[in-house]
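*** Fold description ***
***
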Amino acid sequence: MSKMIVVPALEITPARLVKSSLSDMDYGAWNSATAYKIGDRVTVERINYEVLADHTNRNPVTDTATPAVWMIVGWVNKYRMFNKQIGNTWGIGTFTSNPESIDLTIRPGRRVNAMGLVGVAATSVRVVVTMPGTADPIYDQTFAMSKKKGVGWYQFFFGKFAKRDNVAILDLPPASNADVRVIINAPGSTAQVGMLILGWSEVIGTAVYDTSLGRKNYTTVKEEFDGSIKMTKHGKRRLVNYQIVMEGDEISSALHALDDLSDTAALYVGAVELDYTIIAGTYEDLSVGLPTYGMGTQNLSVRSLN
C-alpha cells in the first residue's frame, strides 16, 4: 500500500519552455504565395497541417470554405509530450522523439513539487532544479529506466534488461521561481516521451492491492471473402483501475481534487516503485463508498492519453 497521488498538469507554453534541444517547427511556415500540392505540410502556431487539395492562399488556421483543403496533423514534435488536445480531439499514441537525447528546461513560474514522464524510451532520465542566477542545483537526480533482471554475476553480465516505461518524481523542491531541466538520454537510440506532466501533487487516499491493470487495443480486423484477414493498426490505451482507501474526512477533499480532472490530463501515481501504476490520463469512472468505521473506499478508473 502507498499514498495515492494525483498531479494536475501545468500548461507548458512557449513562455514556460525556456530552452529545448528540439526544433520549434517540423515543417516550413505557411506562405500565402505558395502553390501547395496534395501531401504538402506546414507548421503554424505549433500545429502541423497537411494539404488535401491543390490550392494557393488558403490559410490553414482561418480558412472555413468547403471542401476543406487543410487537415490538422497534430502538435509539433517539440510540444507533443505536453499536449495531445486540439479542440475536442486528443492525439492518442503520439510521442516527442529525438535521436540520442531530449534536453529541455521549464520555468513554471509557480511552485511545483512533482513530475511524471510516461511512455518513455530511454536509458535514463535526469532532473535538475536550479534557481536563476545560481550555478549550483538545489536538486539533481538521475533515474535509470532499465535494470538487469535477476541477481548473480551471470545475470549481471549476460542477463536481459527490465525496462521501465514510466517514472514519477514526487520530491521536487517547491521553489516558486526555479527552473526545471529534464534530460532524457538514449545513447545509440531514439529518446522518446509520450507525456510529461509537471505540477503540484495531492494525496487522495491510499492505493491498495486490489488495483488492476488493462489495455485497450484499437486495431481493426476485417475478414475477407476468401478467409484472409486485413488488419489496420491503430492506437492503444492503458487502463488502471485503482482501489483506494481513505479516512472519512479525506473523501470531500479527494472529490474536490478530482472535480476538474474528468476531461483533462493529469498524472496518477499508485506507487512510485511500480511504474505500471503510473499513468497520465483522464479518469472515466469514480465511485465512492460511504465511510464505515471511519474508512471509505474509492474505485477510480483512469485511461491513458499518451
In short: The first strand starts at residue 2 and ends at 8.
